[in-house]
Each structure stands twice: as structure tokens, then as C-alpha cells.
Amino acid sequence: MRMLTPLPAEEWDDQAREALASTVPPERRRPDKAGNALSTLVHHPVLAGAFLPFNTYLQKDSTLPERLRELVILRTAFHHGCVYEWGHHSAMARQVGLTEGDVASTQTGSAADEFDQTVLEAVDELYSGSRISAPTWERLGRRLDDRQRMDLMFTVGGYSTLAFALNTFDVPLEDGAGTDEFYASMEN
């Protein structure tokens, strides 16, 4: 039994569409184009309207390089067993340069690249102990400045929160999610 289903089309109102206004283009502020996650979050328009700009910052405007951002999101999704995040972000990761081996490393926690390994360890430390250790923080600082390291931490936290919601509400992954064709259809 699903805890929450995507808001049915007949229940979408101005409040639901307005909740998406700061992050979603007008043509996607409707039930057939918003996707299951957004269509579920708009059950609570005020919360969605507050959370989505933060999540959009993490995904699109963060100072963390795209490739590392997706490495962080995938490791976070793996830790939480979040099929929805994994399905969408494994495709996004490939679009920003992660290889199949890189994606696999987010499941095993063991990366061939030394810095990627440090990033995975930072996510693991946040997941298991709610903090990045001083040695890991220092190793991250070899390639990331303070703002980027802060964005890394908040990406883990933001995507953990989203995983809690997606898993609790049992949001279904859309048919075809994780493919280029799926994302092209969402743009139309």
C-alpha cells in the first residue's frame, strides 16, 4: 500500500501549481508533466514550495562540481535504498561524465580514483556519524574550497531528507526513468 500517491489531476489547484513555480517551468506545472515525486510533494504545497528551491539549489546551482555532486547523490541514495533517487540520478550521473565503474563505486563504497574515494568516505561519515572527520575534511580541501565542502554536506543532508520522503511515501519510479528518452519527453 502506498502511503501517498501522486496528487490526482482533478485535485491539482492553483496552490499545487504555485508550489512548483520557483523551480519548475510553467509547462511542467501539471500532473502529466511534473513526475511522480513533484506530484506527490504537492499534497503539501507550502512544504513543497519551501523545500524545492533548496533542492533545486543543490541540484543545479551548488558550487560542487556536477560530477562530484552526482557521486554524492548516488552514494546517499544507495545508503537510503532510495530507488527513485537512484533511478533518476544514475542517468544524470552518466550525462555529467561518471562511468559505469564510477556509478558502481557508489554502491560498493570503493572508488578507483583517490579523490572520488575521499568523497565517498565523506558521505559515509555523514551517514554513519552525522559529521565529516577532520582528516577527511582536510583531504576534501585539497580540491574543494570551504563553500564546496559545505555544499557537499548539505547535498547529503538534502538528498537524505528527500530519500526519507520518497521512501516513506513509496513514490514509484516513472516508466522509462533513467533514460535520455524519458528526460526528452519531460521537456516537451
From TrEMBL:
It comes from Mycolicibacterium alvei. It comes from the Bacteria. InterPro entries: AhpD-like (IPR029032), CMD-like (IPR003779). This is Carboxymuconolactone decarboxylase. Coiled coil: none annotated. GO terms for molecular function: peroxiredoxin activity. Residues 47-123 form the Carboxymuconolactone decarboxylase-like domain. Pfam families: CMD.
